[in-house]
Design a protein that fits this description.
The longest helix has 16 residues, at 15-30. It is elongated, with a radius of gyration of 24 Å. It folds into 2 domains: 5-142, Rossmann fold (3-Layer(aba) Sandwich), CATH 3.40.50; 172-241, Arc Repressor Mutant, subunit A (Orthogonal Bundle), CATH 1.10.10.10. The chain has 10 helices and 8 strands. 41% of the residues lie in helices and 13% in strands. By secondary structure, it is of the alpha/beta class. The protein has a 5-stranded parallel sheet, with helices on both faces. A 3-stranded antiparallel sheet has the order 6-8-7.
């Protein structure tokens, strides 16, 4: 998968804020996002309007770091931020997918956004103690990795509410159970061998070990000696409940 290209728009409020944005962009790049930032992609002598137009048009996402100063500049059309506002609200908007604009709030005690972003959902980065949670929310949007899968429409109209949480998209336990089910397919044996499960799993071998231990702990599978596994009744019910196999 190609890393998503993300243009970061912000105002140079202070040296502290500028460094925060630099750290933020660096973290995005470290976590698999092609973050575009003036601090490393723009140099003296470059054409600022051309840079902004190009990045706004070519980026898959535009992150707008909303501070009080950013909002003020955007609303009055001042400076670089104001130029971006002009682009985003002009005829060029027809060439820019407006759904790719993500406001993030970097303020204290308010969630002010520029007028042209006021109706858009935002991610709050104002609380430093919760930055990892906010970053996780943002990365799941940028990498198209939602926390939960959208459940299929079921046939059981009276399935109880309790325990009906949808599956996580990155559920390692579910992936292990898929590999175990695939290993069982085509065999009439009661047991399966771990060495046959490994190539069926779409994860690193050490990650497989970790989630297999969880499956054993949860009573979904049992070890028989050092090499053989069997699925339990609870494990079979898990496969049915998660749509891995059909009843």
């Amino acid at each position: 998968m190609n890393p998503p290209r993300v243009f970061i728009s912000y105002s140079h409020d202070s040296a502290v804020h500028k460094k925060w944005v630099l750290d933020f962009a660096t973290t995005l790049r470290n976590r698999g996002v092609d973050a575009v930032l003036d601090q490393w992609d723009l140099k003296p002598g470059d054409d600022l309007p051309h840079f902004m137009e190009t990045q706004l048009r070519e980026a898959q996402f535009v992150i707008m770091v909303c501070t009080e100063e950013y909002v003020k500049k955007a609303n009055v059309g001042k400076g670089g931020v104001g130029y971006e506002k002009m682009i985003m609200t002009s005829s060029l908007l027809s060439e820019i997918d407006n759904s790719k604009v993500i406001p993030i709030i970097r303020q204290k005690g308010t969630d002010e956004r520029p007028t042209f972003l006021s109706s858009k959902l935002y991610i709050n980065f104002s609380n430093d103690s919760e930055l990892e949670y906010s970053l996780d929310d943002l990365l799941r949007v940028l990498l198209n990795a939602p926390l939960y899968e959208k459940p299929e429409i079921g046939l059981n109209h009276f399935k109880p509410l309790d325990g009906s949480r949808p599956d996580r998209t990155s559920d390692g336990l579910k992936e292990v159970m898929k590999a175990i089910a695939a290993t069982y397919e085509g065999t009439s044996n009661q047991y399966i061998y771990f060495q046959n499960v490994v190539p069926k799993a779409s994860m690193h071998r050490l990650t497989l070990d970790r989630y297999l231990k969880q499956a054993v702990k949860d009573g979904l599978v049992k070890w028989h000696g050092d090499y053989a596994l069997s699925i339990t009744d609870d494990g079979l019910n898990y496969l049915f409940a998660h749509g891995i196999i059909e009843e």
